[in-house]
Every structure is written in C-alpha cells, then in structure tokens.
Automatic annotation (TrEMBL):
InterPro entries: MINDY, MINDY_domain. Residues 24-303 form the MINDY deubiquitinase domain. One of its GO terms (molecular function) is K48-linked deubiquitinase activity. GO terms for biological process: protein K48-linked deubiquitination; proteolysis. Residues 361-402 are annotated as: Disordered. The keyword Phosphoprotein does not apply. This is Ubiquitin carboxyl-terminal hydrolase. It comes from Brachypodius melanocephalos (black-headed bulbul). Belongs to the MINDY deubiquitinase family. FAM63 subfamily. It holds the Pfam family MINDY_DUB. Signal peptide: none annotated. Hydrolase that can specifically remove 'Lys-48'-linked conjugated ubiquitin from proteins. Has exodeubiquitinase activity and has a preference for long polyubiquitin chains. May play a regulatory role at the level of protein turnover. Its EC number is 3.4.19.12.
Length: 402
C-alpha cells in the first residue's frame, strides 16, 4: 500500500467495488528472441500507459526480471501493478549515502501516488521542439525510475518560420492559452500569430508530423524499446533494421548478389500490437510506423510482413518461401520510405530498383496465381512505389538495366 501523505487525513475503509471487465487483460504468448514471451493485450483502445510499460518489462525480462507463469492467460491490473512496483523498488541505489537514499524515498513516494493513474491515463504535456520534450510532471517519474524513454512525434517543421515563431518552445497547454489570448488581442500581429498557431494544431491533428517522424526515426536507437505517445494513447515502440540474406541462385534476383541486403540506414519503427482482436494471430505482433496518415502494415515477431489474419499457411512456410518473403519485406519497407519522400542513398536505391526490375521481369515470364481480393500481397504496393521512383530517377540514371 502507498505510504501515508503528511497533512492528509486518512480516509475510512470502504468496500471495494466489483472488478470491471477492463481490469482483466488477456495474455498473448509470442516467440521473442528465442524465448516464449508474454504480451498483455487490451480489449478497448484506451490510453493505458500501464500496458505500454509492462510490455517493455516483459520483452526485456532478462534485465527487468518480470516474468509470468507459462500457462498464464489472464492477468489483473493489480497483478500488473505488483510487478511494476517490484521493478521500481529494485531501482534503489547501491550508494547508502543519506542524500541519495532520501531522494530515492521521495521518488518512491511520488511514484506510488502516480501508479493508480497508469491504468486510466497519465497527464503528459508535449513540447513541439523535440521528440523527447515534455513538460515535466510528477507522472514522468515512472519513466525516469525505470529508464524507459518516452517519445512523441508532434513537432513543428523548422522549414516553416511562421509556425516556429508562433509555437516557439511552448507546451501544448501553453500554446492553447496563447491562441485564446491572441484572438482577444487588439494588436493585429498578435492576432495573426494566434491564427498561425491555431492552424498548426488543426493541420497536425493526428499529433504526428513528417518532421517529427523523421526526428523520431533518427533519435531512437537500434533495438531500443520505448513508449510512444500519440492521441492520448501510449504504445510500446521499437526500432528495428531488417537485414535479410539473398544468396546466389534465388529465382528472380541477380546471381551476383551474395551479400546481406541492408535496409534503410536508419531502420524502421514498429508499435507493439496489443489489440485483443489479434490474440490468436501469432503472425501479427508489430505494426509499422512509417506514415503520418495512419497507413501501416502488420509484421510478425521477426518483423516480416504478415499475411491476412486467419489464412491457413500464414505461419507455416518452406525455407525458400521465407527467403523470398524476407526480400519482399525488404523491398516493401524501402518502397514505403520512398513514398514518404525519405532520403535513401542513391546506391541503395539503384540496388533495390534493380531487384525490383528483375522481379517484375521474372513475374512476367513465370506468372503465379493471383491472390484473392481478401489477401493482397505487399509486393503489389512495393511494385507501385518502385515504378513511381523509377519515373522520378529516370534522368539521373547513367546506365541501362538489361
């Protein structure tokens, strides 16, 4: 139980209300880094930062020590709080100096006050200057103690000087107050600045900008697990770089390519899928974060693109099929980057373009049955993006692909 707060009268004991349905969470078991690992899901799309934090601790259980019984299928909010509390208490500094111990005790007291809010939502106030910039509130202490990074992608574009001037270093709450004040001002310049700020909030209502997505991709470290905040929702996020192998002799690809195929040099961002609707879908674990308009794709635990949920054969595949699927994944993610206008080194783009051309030529000479309307292949999207890229770079190419 949280310690008593000085100066606050203790409340008389009250009967506990019956447990609500949302106080129980279904557990999904996945294969993560060779280990059978639990992931906590939710039935409703709510803020619930508790799940975002606890899933990070479960995915990195070797460091956090948080594990669930092998047969665990349902877990309560109280159990999750207990695991989280144990992790926080384990952060006690080894230094026994009085100053550090008092500071740690104060942090623990602040954290215990915040913990009950984790299952409903935390008060976080973003600043539009950086992906890690938040107005510091007592709720942030949980992330600090557990050393879990908290990110957002709602940034003002530095190439828009009017918006930079209007938004400045203000937080969201401060910017809303500024807009109200400027609308009531008699100075026309202040009124205009308030309108620019208001237009920024309206045009970025998704709370993710292209500049923010680029900064987020650059800031996150390879393999880093963090919490991503957007639209009052907290998600577990990871940055991963796909590195499929393409040995010589693979049908449809140049026989000389025997080296690993690098993806985008900055890797890609993925959000953990915690929707209870995918509880039985082992091939749906991650959702890509590559677009500001919500366009995304599902991936399995190895970050390979998933087939349509519920289709037979989605998880069972031959080695050759998995090898080809890895290449499709690679081409698709590069195509997504190109669609968003991200910078990709020219050598890498030409290499991927050559593979795409070879693949299209192979498909023309070796047609395969087309998938049904309920199961579109990601390669179709990748092919369209590759053709668009080919049109844009036609004048830059100094060689012909035969």
């Amino acid at each position: 139980a949280p310690p008593a707060v000085p100066g606050v009268a203790a409340e008389p004991p009250r009967a506990q209300p019956p447990a609500r349905e949302e106080d129980f969470y279904c557990v999904k078991w996945i294969s993560w880094k060779g280990e059978r690992t639990p992931v906590v899901t939710q039935s409703e799309n709510g803020p619930c930062p508790l799940l975002a934090i606890i899933n990070i601790l479960l995915l990195q259980w070797k460091a956090s020590g948080v594990k669930l019984p092998p047969q665990k299928e349902v877990i309560t909010a109280e159990e999750l709080m207990a695991h989280l509390g144990n992790c926080i208490l384990a952060t006690q500094p080894r230094d026994t100096s009085e100053g550090l111990q008092l500071n740690f005790q104060q942090n623990i007291n602040d954290t215990m006050t915040v913990l009950p809010k984790l299952s409903t939502g935390l008060d976080v106030n973003v600043r539009f200057t950086g992906v890690s910039d938040f107005e510091y509130t007592p709720e942030c202490i949980v992330f600090d103690l557990l050393n879990i990074p908290l990110y957002h992608g709602w940034l003002v574009d530095p190439q828009s000087p009017e918006q930079v001037q209007a938004v400045g270093k203000l937080s969201y709450n401060q910017l809303v107050e500024k807009i109200i004040t400027c609308k009531q001002a008699s100075d026309s310049s202040l009124v205009s600045e308030g309108l620019v700020a208001e237009q920024f909030l309206e045009s970025t209502a998704s709370q993710l900008t292209f500049h923010g997505l680029c900064e987020l991709t650059a800031r996150a470290r390879e393999g880093e697990l963090g919490v991503f905040f957007r639209n009052n929702h907290f998600s577990t996020m990871i940055k991963h770089k796909v590195r499929p192998q393409t040995p010589a002799g693979t049908p449809g690809w140049p026989s000389a390519l025997t080296v690993p195929c690098p993806s985008s040099p900055q890797g890609h961002l993925y959000l953990l899928v915690t929707d209870q609707g995918f509880l039985q879908e082992e091939g749906v674990v991650w959702e890509s974060l590559h677009s500001v308009d919500g366009d995304s794709c599902f991936c399995d635990t190895e970050f390979h693109l998933s087939h349509a949920p519920g289709k037979e054969g989605a998880t069972a595949a031959s080695p050759d099929h998995r090898l080809q699927q890895s290449q499709v994944d690679q081409d698709y993610m590069v195509a997504l980057s190109l669609q968003q206008g991200q910078e990709v080194p020219s050598v890498l783009s030409d290499l991927e373009l050559a593979r795409q051309l070879q693949h299209e030529e192979y498909q023309q000479h070796h047609p395969h049955p087309q998938p049904g309307p309920s199961q579109p292949l990601p390669a179709q999207v990748g092919g369209r993006a590759a053709r668009e890229r080919r049109q844009r770079r036609k004048s830059d190419l100094d060689c012909a692909l035969l």
